[in-house]
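Aggregate trends can hide what the representation actually does to any particular protein. The sequence in question and its structure tokens are set out directly beneath this paragraph.
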Amino acid sequence: METGSTNEHSGKGAMWELDRSLDQPMDVEAGRLRNMYREKTYPTILLLRLAFQSLGVVFGDLGTSPLYVFYNIFPREPEDTEQVIGALSLIIYSLTLIPLVKYVFIVLRANDNGQGGTFALYSLLCRHAKINIIPNQHRTDEELTTYSRHIYEEKSLAAKIQRWLEGHQFRKNVILILVLFGTCMAVGDGILTPAISVLSATGGIQVEEPKMRNDVVVIISVVILIGLFSMQHYGTDKVSWLFAPIVFVWFILIGILGVVNICKYDHSVLKAFNPVYVYRYFRRGKSSWTSLGGIMLSITGTEALFADLSYFPVQAIQIAFTVVVFPCLLLQYTGQAAFIAANTHKISHAFYHSIPASILWPALVIATAAAIVASQATISATYSIIKQALALGCFPRVKIIHTSKKYLGQIYSPDINWILMIFCIAVTAGFKNQSQIANAYGTAVIMVMLVTTFLMIPIMLLVWRSHWSLVILFTVLSLLVEIPYFSAVVRKIDQGGWVPLVFAAAFLVIMYVWHYGTLKRYEFEMHSKVSMAWILGLGPSLGLVRVPGIGLVYTELASGVPHIFSHFITNLPAIHSTLVFVCVKYLPVYTVPLEERFLVKRIGPKNFHMFRCVARYGYKDIHKKDDDFEKMLFDSLLLFIRLESMMEEYTDSDEYSTMDVGLNLQAASNPNPNMELSYTSHDSIVPVHSPSNDTGSSQVVPSSGLAFQSVGDEIAFLNSCRDAGVVHILGNTVIRARRDSGFVKKLAINYLYAFLRKICRENSAIFNVPHESLLNVGQVFYV
């Protein structure tokens, strides 16, 4: 009773100390894996080559905007030449301030070791402030070479911002919802980009064949879209070599056409480079403000520039944009404005009307090919976004297929692909014209830009540690451009702008409910994990018959014994002679190097034959197939045992000599450089003694009847267990809302989350577990 009272007041009694001593965090193992990350440098020739290749992947969407911008600025004929010059001036300075200054030279620097997009910004924030809603991170994860972060002085502004963000759960939720909203809008971009790009490109047929009905153009566009989405499972690896030449030819074409039109029609439009015409444009009245929605289409594709960053280094994208993309776009918009000033009645399909008749059909073919490339880049970016969201627990489990053995970033999701195709065809066939699709497209793009601006504020303060005045300057200049565009697209919500909002709302509900359910399941495992004292009290046999074989118990916990294990052993009479608790967790980093992926340690005394393995992945990493995963895990386990045995002979050595021994052993026992290795923990360097050893040794007897005299005996025992068979034990936890819960919570948990769990892929499919080796352990709990 006295002990219980002590524990009640202190919260840390003898049992807590026992649990802590027998199941310590893997600080030492992670420390021995630490290496220095070195940023890649590229030779000049290679950098130029990558810059050329980036044209086909990154800039297709931005490059096809001239097909539809001026028609959406002037649904009716412009009043005079000055109005055209004012619109052109806005286009010029929008392209300069947003894509060039904000993204190419500022936002691209906020990459996560070369990865871009909304989730890359979120992962950076999660590393520099503890804002991750699912608290499965540990300080050992900070030892990863890709886990770059800063430590702030106590009284610095960054430290105050960090404490403010970490201080309340509401702020963490606001950031999460902001990230999810930006992600949902980016998914909406993946639906709308193919629709407007292909429809605008094929619309050029009506210039050559004026009698052709609009319905025929829509049908042609739908056929192209069906073909585009149907070919996705082949991947882009086999045809990607064509992307860069197609888009390069497209940029050269529109640049030359721009120069020709300037010289041929009206070179006075060059006055648009004077910003005073922006002021004069807005003085013309309400119609100028309304036309901002069309002008904003000139910068669509800018977010894809950041999201597709993972394929190329920042310098390559900067070179491609400043040398090719930016000049060609300025020439094309200026030339097209010159043509419109002289031919105001040809505002519809102005791009095609400005092309000489002799090259109209070749230009139409190139435009359609460029539109398909732009659509492909956006679709691929959508797959990547979904993969990141899935890895961070914010999206239901869907099938992800890697279509290239060379490039890990090239993935394909059949479930997402067909959803995108259905919505894309529905938008194309439903609206049938560019204007309404453009309104929807503009809404999605400006929302993503605003989310990026707001996320850049803590990035600049925490990650870059910029002076507050620079942060304010960046924010004010960004919002000075984006807020007017936002106000313009809001006015067009009833004219098609509602489409991305509906898509975003649906995806946001799905993602947030899934994340909420995942969080509750993790909290249940944390609060209901089994005490190590209870495990030790069962003895080496765990109160059961230990049958030959290895049991891999999957859990979301990186420490402690999961509740499903107690549920398992209290309902079955036997357990495997070797148990490994496997935690597969994703971290807010883009990748975990192979040599740092596995951490292995022993749980309890040696004769319990219990181990823990933490397999750490980044949001870009592939979970290997089951055979590979089993082999890597088993090799890591054997290496751990060898290293543990050697550490017992070096108990008087310091940490450096211990690490040297580990590295020498690694080199000697691991001829395969791709093998993922594990390392011992500090508490395993010396023999672990349980309280039962103090009272008598009769309870500590190997359940297998074998008293290991050497490391070779234990390795032989493990090999025999592996030969007997490996069984994967997965928990199937079902959560339900309590009876006293509110209506919204019951609807979210009992129906929506349950439905998502039912239709999404099982954990066994994600882990590639063969059915003959699978054992599901079910349990229900109420939240």
